[in-house]
Each structure stands twice: as structure tokens, then as C-alpha cells.
Amino acid sequence: MKRLFYFVLWLAVLSSCKAIEPVVPENFVEPYPALNNEVSYITIPVEMDLSHYLKAAEKEIPQSYSGKNEQCEGMSTSYFIKRDEIKFSGSGDKVGYELAGQLKLKINYCPKCQTLTDEKGVCIIPRLFVSCGDNEPMRKFNLKYSTAVKVNSDYAFKTTTNLQKFELLDPCELTIANIDVTKDVEKEITKQLKVLELEIDKQFSAIDIKSMAKESWKLLQESTEIPGYGYLSLAPSSLAMSELKFSGKKARFNFNLGVSPSFTTEKPQLIPTELPVLGTSAKSSGLNFGLDVILSYDSLTSFLRSSFVGKTFEVKRKKISIDDVQISGSRDSRIILKTKISGSKKGIIYLLAQPVLNDSLKLLELKNVDFEVETRSLLLKSAKWFFNSKITELIQKEGSFNYASMVEDMKAEVNNSLNQEISKGVRMSGAIHAVDLRQLFYTANNLLLRAHLSGNLKLILE
């Protein structure tokens, strides 16, 4: 009888020392929905330096020119005009031009002509001749123009330039046959000076905003790599423009860009679209888009190992040590924790834990920690007492991953991608102000954290 007792005791001891080796749980992954690519509207303030174009206008507009208006009967004029440097100054929706200059006039007057002997006419009374600024200092004047500027749906500039003021600073008093013709002369000069309006409109129309928009549109369609995370695609779909506002030699306006941003871990194959017709919409919602952040199980495993490996706890005078822990997949909306233990019981157990986002504290917490079904079944047969262990409480208490630094790294990388030169003379300036993690999904090897980013973006043309 005694031998039988020792034999049973030996079997019990042998059974208690047997390593736990449950079946490896099967990975189960539910497909997660694609990012919601609804169109959001980004208002992009644009500041355009017109100095280059205005210098071109200054260069192309003649420094001096002459003309004449001849007729047989009545007053005929000829003139020579020389201008100084043009002073440009924008204000509101118009660009102003002021210039000073000097002129000289020659006037002749014929009271009566006959065309019997010459079809052009012959003055039958001797002509009267007067001049102003000829063979004497040229007379000074001031001019002021104003140009209203719009951009059509085909990206072409539409300009309307008007002569606002013509002022002779030292006018001539011109009298012929006791008739004061000063006002007539000023009117004639003003009419001739209006030829400058066409030249100013021509120079403004030469500004090629369409090529600039086309190149920017092409580049905005390309994905931008965010190292360590993936590829950001803005997917622009529409472009609108506000009215131009001028200040000094700068023009300011807003581009309103319709985008459907997305973030992918693999570089997407994008089909480029043509530059759309320029609209006038004023919609705006800042820079808002979704982004999927891949958090590998390997990186989470490293965190768990630093938190749990070497921990020892006691249950009913039995000691258990955690030798290793590893995330090995997911099942039933929970991750699988492969845990190696030693001490009063040794082997491998599988636990399930539900990661939960606590965005207010920037924590990824492990909740609902429990034994996986195969491990539970094996423990019921060989080590019921293990159910009273503190391992589930320990993992739930200590298994919080602070992702604040990860969010800051993500913001820094995205901000780098939003602050770069798109093409020569065109650069982006933007910033992400907030990153909110809203949902998480499981893959075979990663946790996928779905985030929402908000900020602003500015396009600068130099």
C-alpha cells in the first residue's frame, strides 16, 4: 500500500513538472475598411511677387515716342514725348502706374483749304505756326494709369487699363487767331498717350499662370514618401481661385484645392489627371485627412519584453517567472500574447488582450486580458491553481504603450513633406497641428492605427 502511495505521489510530481505546451492559436484577421476619401477643401494663400513682370513692362514700354495728326483745314499737331521711370503700386484689386515725363509740341493752323488742285487739300490762307517745348526746355507732365486684373477660367489674365490722370506741370498758353487751343492740345495729347494702355495690358497678359498651375497640379498628384510610415497622396480633384488683391508690387490670392488625401504603406500607382477648369469656389476646410499608421508587432513585442520579462509573482506559495513574451498575431479582435514561463510551472501559455486607444492620455492600453481557449483547456487539466495567478492583472496593469513620441515623430515627418519646393519658384509651407488616433485594426503582423490629421497648407510663388 505504501508503495502504491509513493507511486501515485511520483506521478503527481511528474505531472506538475510537465511543461505546458498548448496548440498555437490560429491567426484570425478581419479585413479593415479603406480610408474614407471624401473631398476636403484646402485654402492655399498665394503670394506672388510681380517685380519681375513689372520690370519687363518697364523695359518693353518705349522710353520715348513721337507722333502727328495732320489735316489740311483746322489744327494739326506733331509731338515728341519722353518718359521717366514708371512707378508701380498695387492697391485693392488694381495696379497703379505713375510716371513723369517731358514733351514738346508743334502746332499749325489752317483756316481754309481747297481741294481743286490737290485732293489732299491746299491751305489757301497762310498757316499759323506755334510751338511748346520746342527750341526751349521741354514741358513737364505727370501720368497715372490704373489696371484692373482678373483671371479667367482658362487661367489667362484679363486686364483693363485706363488713363486716370494727365497733368501738364508747366502748360503752354497756345493761342491761334485769338483762339485758345490749350484744352484742345491737352485732349489730343491725352488721346495719343492712351496707346500706352495697350502696351501695359500686353505685358500683364504675358504672365503665364497656367504653366505654373499645370506644373504645380502635376506635382501635387504625386505621392510623397514619409520615411518610416509610407506614402501620402493628396489626389487633387478641383482648383478654384479667389480675386486678386494687390499691395505694392505683390499680388495675393487664394487657391482653393479639392483633395481626397490618403496614406498607404506601399507606393500607389496614380493615374494623373489634366489641369481642371479654374473655378471661383470659396469653400474651405483647412488641411484634413486620414492616415493609417502601421505599428508592427515586433516593435510592440520589444515594449512588452521590457515591461514583463523577469517579473515574478507568487500564487499559493508557488512562484512563476515570465521569461519571454511575444505578440504572435490576432484572434477575436484581440492580439495573441505568446508567454514563456518558468518556476512552479514552466512552458508556454497563450493569452488574448484587447488593445484600446486612450487618445486623451496618448496611451495604447491592454484590456480584457484572458487565457486563450486551448491554454485554458490545458490548464484546467494540469494546473487549475494557475487561474488564480496574477499574470492577467499584471499584463493589464503594466501593458500600456505611450504613443505620444510616435505621434510627434509622425507630425515632424509629415510637416517635412509639407515644407518643400514643388518646382522652381513654387514651394509649399504647411504644418500639421493635431494628430488624433481614432480606430485600430489588426493584420497578421501589425496593428493598424487609423489617424486623422488637421493643419494648414500654404503655396508660395516666388
The total strand number stands at: 28
State the helix count: 9
Beta fraction: over 45%
The average pLDDT score comes to 81
Radius of gyration from CA coordinates: 42 Å
Residues in helices, as a percent range? 10-25%
- Structural class assignment: alpha+beta
Poorly predicted tracts of residues: 1-16
Largest sheet: 11 strands, antiparallel
Shape: rod-shaped
> How far do the termini sit from each other?
101 Å
Describe, in short, the structure shown.
The chain has helices at 2-17, 51-60, 182-193, 195-205, 209-220, 297-308, 373-382, 391-398, 404-418, and strands at residues 40-49, 64-69, 74-83, 87-92, 94-110, 113-114, 122-123, 128-132, 139-151, 157-168, 175-176, 179-180, 224-226, 230-233, 236-241, 245-248, 250-259, 262-264, 287-296, 312-315, 318-331, 334-343, 347-358, 363-371, 400-402, 421-423, 426-442, 446-461. The protein is an alpha+beta fold and 462 residues long.
General description of the model:
It is built from 9 helices and 28 strands. By secondary structure, it is α+β, with helices and mostly antiparallel strands. It has a domain at 50-205. The strands form 6 sheets. Strands 1, 2, 3, 4, 5, 8, 9, 10, 15, 16 and 17 form an 11-stranded antiparallel β-sheet that branches. A 6-stranded antiparallel β-sheet has the order 20-21-22-23-24-25. α2 runs antiparallel to α4.
Write the layout of secondary structure elements.
Layout: H1 2-17, E1 40-49, H2 51-60, E2 64-69, E3 74-83, E4 87-92, E5 94-110, E6 113-114, E7 122-123, E8 128-132, E9 139-151, E10 157-168, E11 175-176, E12 179-180, H3 182-193, H4 195-205, H5 209-220, E13 224-226, E14 230-233, E15 236-241, E16 245-248, E17 250-259, E18 262-264, E19 287-296, H6 297-308, E20 312-315, E21 318-331, E22 334-343, E23 347-358, E24 363-371, H7 373-382, H8 391-398, E25 400-402, H9 404-418, E26 421-423, E27 426-442, E28 446-461
Antiparallel strand pairs: 1-17, 2-3, 3-5, 4-5, 4-16, 5-8, 5-9, 6-7, 9-10, 11-12, 13-14, 14-18, 15-17, 16-17, 19-28, 20-21, 21-22, 22-23, 23-24, 24-25, 26-27, 27-28
